[in-house]
Amino acid sequence: MREILLLSIVTFSFVIFSANAQNMPEKIDFHRAINMAWAVDPVRTELQVGHHSAKARSSAAGSWFAGGPTLSGEYMDDHAIGSNEGYTTYQGGVSVPLWLPGQGSATRQVASAEAASLDEQLNVEYLSLSIRILDGAAKAKIAQERLKAAHQLYEYASRVNSLIAHSAHVGESSSSESQIAQSEMENARNEQALAQEYLENARVELEVLFAQPVEVDLSHAADMAHVRFVEPHDMEDNDPRVKAAHKNVEAAQANMKLARRSFMPNPELGIDVIHEKQYGSPWDDRVGVNFSIPLPSEARNTPIMSEASNRLASANSQEIQARRMVHLEISRVRARLMAATAARQTTRIAAANMQKRAAAEEHAWRVGEATLETVMQAEQAACNAQFANARAEVEWHVATLRMMIAMGITP
């Protein structure tokens, strides 16, 4: 019976372990994380479809004619008026719209410029996705460190509470110390629950980018020892957002050129064939040429030119704003890296000192030279300092990776 019970316990433990192992997110490096998220990014698919559509429009603009052919036909006789003299006419024709001078090449330039703009939009989305992954991974890692610090504080508070409970039972501790120990343990338990909630939310936010649970490792990617220095001005020029804004300007300029080339509706040229029978004469066939030339009109051209001018002005404005925004962001990234480097050093020293202080206060409490409240405050300060040190370490890795991304390097 005891063997069966032992086997059941082992089996149950194995099932629980297997279930927990399946729920554990996969741990991958930052570079692989970007590739995984990029493969399932819906914006990438949308931009790629738009790029193929623009390429197809550019290819279609290479046609000989500005549009498809138009077929026309007529049939007339004298039966409707009651004469019945045999006057019958069959007439048919086909015509095609013609390109205006320079309109076909301008149309191809617009489509090609829009395709190039979508190429840069893909790079912008890749950059944006990399930053979102970096922020999400940092949030999840900081949440893990917060939960770790909460666990440490709860374990310490539980151990102290057990000691105080035993001392109170034998009459060596007062009820106030027992209340303090119990209160600190409950506060630590509450912080533990809040940290667990924060971690779960961070993991879910990161899971949205990958469509599966993933843990991104940032500790082995932030190595700038062999990175070539890039001038800030070059960083701005090479930023995908600035390039995309400039491509939009080029597309707007091409559209303005097309608007000027489309100063009137497209003329049409075709062939007509007449097959008719007249009273007292044999069948007669004739072939001729037809053409249609709509004349320019301000009522038509002014809105087209106004829309093209507005698009160009908007594109120029967005390029200036993009360059200013990137300049400001690069300055902030550099400042953040410097601040994170300094914080990494100072918090490490502070955490070590606070840990020594907590150990000293505990020793003083054990020999009766310090109160329990002072000891718990010192331990909480040590845990907070340890968490601040771990957070500073994560933020330094994030700042380093962000600087590498700004320099055009995919870590």
UniProtKB/TrEMBL annotation:
Location in or out of the cell: Cell outer membrane
Naturally occurring in which organism (per UniProt): Acetobacter oryzoeni
Alphabetized UniProt keyword annotations: Cell outer membrane, Membrane, Transmembrane, Transmembrane beta strand, Transport
One CC-aspect GO term: cell outer membrane
Statement: the UniProt record of this protein carries the keyword Iron: no
Assigned protein family: Belongs to the outer membrane factor (OMF) (TC 1.B.17) family.
One Pfam family from the record: OEP
Protein known as: TolC family protein
